[in-house]
Amino acid sequence: xxxxxxxxxxxxxxxxxxxxxxxxxxxxxxxxxxxxxxxxxxxxxxxxxxxxxxxxxxxxxxxxxxxxxxxxxxxxxxxxxxxxxxxxxxxxxxxxxxxxxxxxxxxxxxxxxxxxxxxxxxxxxxxxxxxxxxxxxxxxxxxxxxxxxxxxxxxxxxxxxxxxxxxxxxxxxxxxxxxxxxxxxxxxxxxxxxxxxxxxxxxxxxxxxxxxxxxxxxxxxxxxxxxxxx
Length: 230
Description:
There is one protein chain. This protein is mainly beta. The chain has one domain (2-160, 197-214). It is built from 2 helices and 20 strands. An 11-stranded mixed sheet has the order 1-3-5-7-9-11-13-17-16-15-20. Strand 15 (161-166) and strand 16 form a beta hairpin.
């Protein structure tokens, strides 16, 4: 595994130009202290898949950028920005007021951790099965989330958003992302939303309004049904 470890200064590392690998198992980059800007690798094994990277911001207000592999982004302490790539990524904000951004990859998992966190999605482009669970820690175990958290659906308006309940989870999608057979092309899952209730995800931001998370507990009462909010 190729690795790079920074220091207490403000480090900038861009591993996207790292040469094509023959035997590497992945990349590990850690900024340690300081406000770091780290970009993961974007290369692939000869005859194989893209290499995944683990980016660890450590302490400080960091910017972490995933690339084409299945990457792990660890914000650590501080107010971090975590940018998903085109793989199936795991984004963990840690302590602080973090921003987590989905990209074109499918089935990303995101947890802001403690602090006031914001999750950004553009449905139809990303968010195809992406999962938000603000109660998860850096080891994806329950019990670390709190604060005033918000999901932003950047290209979705009140008259186009669709919400649904699937067991304990809340699903967010758009009318235009439904196929004629009822299958959904693009959606975001808020895992265990109906278990934690009020205070889990406080707001859903749309282009033209903000929905209080607590209101969705009564708007979406039944498992398996889809609801318009207008």
